[in-house]
Amino acid sequence: MTDPPREPHPRVLWAVLAASALLSLWCAWRVPLIDPDEGRNAEVAREMAVDGDWVVPHLAGLPYLDKPPGLFALGALAVRVAGRNRVAVRLPALLASLVTLGLLARAARRLGPPGAARDTLLLTAAAPLFAGLAAYVIFDMPLAACVTAVWTGVALETATGRSDRRRLGLFAAVAAGVLLKGPIMLAWAIGGSAGAALVSRSRSPLAWLGWWPGWLLVFATAGGWFALALHRHPEYLRYAFVEESFQRMTSGAFRRDQPWWFVPAVLAGGALPWSLATPWHLPRSAGSRTAAGFVLFAAAFFSLSHSKLVTYLLPAIPALAWWGAECWRVRSGRVPRPLLAGLLLAPLALTAGSPWIVRYAAGQSGEPLAAAIERAGATTVLYDNCYSPGSDFRLGRVSEVVSKGGHVLTSNYVVRYRDSLEARGQWRLYHSEQAAPPTDVVVLPARRRAEGVRRWGEPFFSDTRFAAFRRDTVR
């Protein structure tokens, strides 16, 4: 097969990429890190940058194997290069968003008519879910880049024929996705390709899965890391495949079940306003059929799953935008100008609403507490049955933590395998305040503020989550 003619390289593509990057950088600089997710992921990355353990991530000095090390390693590299700040740890998500847009532009210029790349990028970059997570320390944006690399590669192979070099890229994306978020990347790759085959009524989208050198790459990289982690933590085999993957999807053990309408509501809301304005119809081109297949997989898989979060649907947004752009081309030749004006909704909401967003983030962030601890001149901190990972990130040190079961770390792995960690001498949390070493500051949950006042006087910091008290020793 021969490639379709390419459209001239339009300036609007660079404009979309530049605008997306600037908006993300502004949000990354302006908005405080939000606990627990952003603060936790940032602190894990910081500890990795300090201890140099690229195999097993750590949080508060404890092994943190709830997720593979991919995102933390990227964050650690950013911290080492750009310093310990909120922009640095958000760079992996920001760069992943630009990679996603670049992959879409490259594929659309090869497979679509003139204007296809422009329309697809505009719809993707303006989707609130995509724009909002492009500067957020979370796994799903880098995962979206890997998923986009897979389905655009499948679309190119279906339309232009097999290429071993392209297949190597497909499996490299699969390996990277597994190292970022675990086996869910395999579900996206295999399930999405099956969805594309169903929509296309052809086995062509499945052909790449039979290329054994690619699977050798996946097993050598992602499998190699897993073997190293398993050598140090034998229980990780059960946790990764049985508890974190199978039980998460098939039971309500993680308390993330949602009603039946959750997935369509997220896809529609995460892509407003164009998700509702687009004149949807069945996909017609090879690229749109592949994209629709991956959207179909996401809708089916996460509707059936008992673990649902809004961010899980992010990798489907670029594919939905590709499909939507084709629908507009069939209807009117391009995305209409009134809708183009509506695409400014998400960027305007992020900028105009920034004061409210910053206030909300500050209320959920550990940065105000860390700033207060710095002003107090304290060098050591004890968290008594509470924890703010974002504060440790801001302070650049690992605090002491009192927690019998480790629940305050929000790590399912730590909670479930406390006994194994203690047996190996890796448990560093304290069962009581009396067992902890002396510190300058003790931080209590806000509900225990009165108790702290009785013992140490008025707190030097207090909000809806914490109350921090200065003292000479904690015994």
Explained architecture:
This protein is mainly α. It is built from 23 helices and seven strands. Helix 20 (389-395) links the parallel strand 3 (381-384) and strand 4 (400-402). Helices cover 61% and strands 5% of the residues. The termini are far apart. The chain has two domains: 11-30 and 85-358, no CATH class; 364-470. Residues 1-6 have low confidence and may be disordered.
Topology diagram in text:
Layout: H1 11-30, H2 37-51, E1 58-59, E2 62-63, H3 70-82, H4 86-111, H5 116-126, H6 128-133, H7 140-160, H8 164-181, H9 184-200, H10 212-232, H11 236-250, H12 262-269, H13 274-277, H14 286-304, H15 316-332, H16 337-342, H17 345-352, H18 354-363, H19 367-375, E3 381-384, H20 389-395, E4 400-402, H21 412-416, H22 418-423, E5 441-445, H23 449-456, E6 461-462, E7 466-470
Parallel strand pairs: 3-4, 3-5
Antiparallel strand pairs: 1-2, 5-7, 6-7
Q: Can you give the helix content as a percent range? A: 55-70%
Total count of helical runs of at least 4 residues: 23
Number of strands: 7
Q: What is the 3D form?
A: globular
Query: Which structural category do the helix and sheet elements fall into?
Result: mainly alpha
* Low-pLDDT segments, ≥5 res: 1-6
The total domain count is: 2
Sheet with the most strands: spatial strand order: 4-3-5-7-6
Largest sheet report = 5 strands, mixed
Structure described in brief:
The protein is built from 23 helices and 7 strands. By secondary structure, it is mostly helical.
What keyword list fits this structure?
23 helices, disordered N terminus, 475 residues, five-stranded mixed beta sheet, 2 domains, 5% strand
